[in-house]
Amino acid sequence: AQSVTQPDIHITVSEGASLELRCNYSYGATPYLFWYVQSPGQGLQLLLKYFSGDTLVQGIKGFEAEFKRSQSSFNLRKPSVHWSDAAEYFCAVAPREASKIIFGSGTRLSIRP
Amino acid sequence: DAGVTQSPTHLIKTRGQQVTLRCSPKSGHDTVSWYQQALGQGPQFIFQYYEEEERQRGNFPDRFSGHQFPNYSSELNVNALLLGDSALYLCASSLDRADEKLFFGSGTQLSVL
Description:
The complex is a heterodimer of chains A (about 110) and B (about 110).
Chain A: E1 3-5, E2 10-14, E3 19-21, E4 24-26, E5 32-38, E6 44-50, E7 56-58, E8 64-68, E9 73-78, E10 87-94, E11 102-103, E12 107-112
Parallel strand pairs in A: 2-12
Antiparallel strand pairs in A: 1-4, 3-9, 5-6, 5-10, 7-8, 8-9, 10-11, 10-12
Chain B: E1 5-7, E2 10-13, E3 19-24, E4 31-37, E5 44-50, E6 53-57, E7 64-68, E8 74-78, E9 87-94, E10 103-104, E11 108-112
């Protein structure tokens, strides 16, 4: 079955510290991979996506993610977080042929001043 | 350029009632997808409309139906509301079926009492 697992429900990091959010997926083939961010009362904003090619993907707001096929992982990283990064982060996958996106349950990021 | 707009922003209904949610896609987009996001969960795919036809459907009962109009706007209808239908309903639009990048609206918060 196709699924996305985000093992960390809630993470708190200090402002200026580095961040890594974990994501593992289960899929029959290499899917399209995404990270979205959702601020309270807002819709989802795409941070970055991976379809093929270089396994290190750069996104907006200083985020990057690395695709590791052997580990079925697509972890999100940021070298130095800002207070404005506090939000809910969703990892997601989609099949190549269709647009149905399967989301993980999300990781809530809090920033410690 | 307006993004994806949804109305209403909030809605309160009682069990057994019917509800209609509306979505206007981003200018130039012809495909509309609907997602249900329960509290503390990731969004779940309900269905997608393209060229006024339901093209793909997730694991939702027939109580959930939709429509796409010639101007590409869309409605989501839910009949015989249950308490468990309380959720944030997100609309997303995209340019065409091969474009996996979705633009999300801010959602309609539905509360069923």
